[in-house]
Write a structure and sequence with these properties.
By secondary structure, this protein is α/β, with parallel strands linked by helices. It has seven helices and 14 strands.
Length: 250
């Protein structure tokens, strides 16, 4: 049975730590302005690599006499393009290759690249449509162009894909979460109660029974299954960015 987690105060105001606010003085000013905790995005770094930022957070909170909430935003089952040697400019009307010798994509996405499939890149800033499937990927036309950098998000609206709940990096982050003072874990792209149970079990096995679990609703599947999350998650997060790519505003 999961141990009862400590309830946070009624109002929580989270900032997101980054280069502009990673020093103790700036974080202290943010706490004094009303911030109660920090969200640490682990899409591109690990918790261990962010040790200096975590240390600065705790020092700033201590100066203010506060116990800081540290919320880590995991990678989860989000799809991303691979590493690019340099940024690519995609022009509207251009035809290019996805997979193979073209834009690197995760293997799990390749079978879904059927003609007519829309491809959203970098949180929907760029939009492509598949025109032809190939042996190694697909050919797609750029409908909304822009600059694409490596490791940006990839979404295939309507495609039925099942990447694992946690990446290897997520597993390592969970392993040291309690020792780093993490108070909350945000699981992206929750698809089922099983996703949350998987993360909860990993936390419990690594000394994180008191760490709160946040379920991010980011696609149609998550929205439809929201009722089953309510008994498993401690908090529900409406991730308006990716959710806005998955369905119309209304």
């Amino acid at each position: 049975m999961t141990a009862m987690k400590e309830q946070p105060s009624a109002r929580q105001i989270y900032g997101t730590i980054g280069p502009a606010c990673a020093d103790v003085e700036t974080l202290e000013a943010m706490f004094r302005a009303g911030m109660t905790g920090i969200r640490l995005n682990l899409s591109h770094v690990t918790l261990a690599q962010a040790a200096d930022q975590v240390d600065a957070l705790h020092k700033a909170a201590q100066r203010c006499g506060k116990q800081a909430e540290l919320l880590i935003d995991m990678q989860g089952p989000e799809l991303r393009v691979g590493v690019l040697a340099e940024p690519m400019t995609l022009n509207e009307g251009e035809v290019l290759e996805l997979g193979g010798k073209g834009i690197p994509l995760p293997e799990i996405a390749i079978p879904a690249l059927l003609p007519g499939q829309e491809v959203l890149l970098d949180d929907g800033k760029l939009l492509l449509r598949v025109t032809e499937q190939t042996e190694t990927g697909a050919v797609a036309e750029v409908l909304r162009g822009g600059v694409l950098r490596g490791r940006k998000s990839l979404a295939l609206p309507g495609a039925d894909l099942e990447p694992p709940t946690m990446t290897a990096s997520d597993v390592e982050n969970i392993r040291i979460a309690a020792s780093c003072g993490v108070t909350g874990v945000m699981q992206p792209f929750v698809r089922s109660r099983r996703d949350l149970e998987t993360v909860r079990r990993a936390l419990d096995e690594n000394g994180g029974a008191k760490i709160r679990l946040f379920a991010k609703i980011e696609n149609q599947t998550g929205l439809e299954r929201l009722p089953e999350f309510l008994e498993t998650a401690d908090e529900i997060v409406i991730a308006r960015g990716d959710l806005g790519n998955a369905m119309p505003l209304w």
